[in-house]
Amino acid sequence: MFDENWNLHSDAAITEHFIDRNPDYFGVLLDLLRTGELYVPPKIDKKFLYREGGYYGILDHVRSAECDTFDGNRLRLAKSIMGLLVGDGRLH
């Protein structure tokens, strides 16, 4: 979402950021993050929803929510044990 060369902390007084993106798609993604459920209204094109999900860095969340309810806690837990596999001698 932010260019890697842009200093996000350039002014400590700024606590808000303006994002000039389509609010219809942003609303669908925000509801997904709030409720864990993906509801795509008929006027929303999934191709563009995926594009917006990619822009915000949550495309995997969008795709997984299509199959089941999105669970942010499940993703955080999975991240905390990433790389450990049952049977590799490190996880019992």
Structural write-up:
Pathway: Protein modification; protein ubiquitination. Helix content is 46%, strand content 0%. The mean pLDDT is 76. The N and C termini lie far apart (38 Å). The chain has a domain of 47 residues. By secondary structure, it is mainly α. Helix 2 crosses helix 3. The chain is elongated.
What are the SSEs and their pairings?
Elements (H helix, E strand, L loop, with lengths): L22 H13 L10 H11 L2 H9 L4 H9 L12
Helix pairs in contact: 1-2, 2-3
Offer a few descriptive terms.
4 helices, mainly alpha, 0% strand, 46% helix, 92 residues
Strand content: under 5%
N-to-C span: 38 Å
Structural class: mainly alpha
H/E element string? HHHH
Strand count, sense and closure of the main sheet? none
Mean pLDDT: 76
Count of DSSP H/I helices: 4
Q: Which stretches are low in confidence, meaning pLDDT under 50 for 5 or more residues running?
A: none
Number of strands: 0
Assign a percent range to the helix content: 40-55%
Radius of gyration: 17 Å
How would you sum up the global shape? elongated
Can you describe this structure in just a few lines?
This protein has 92 residues and is mostly helical. It has a domain at 23-69.
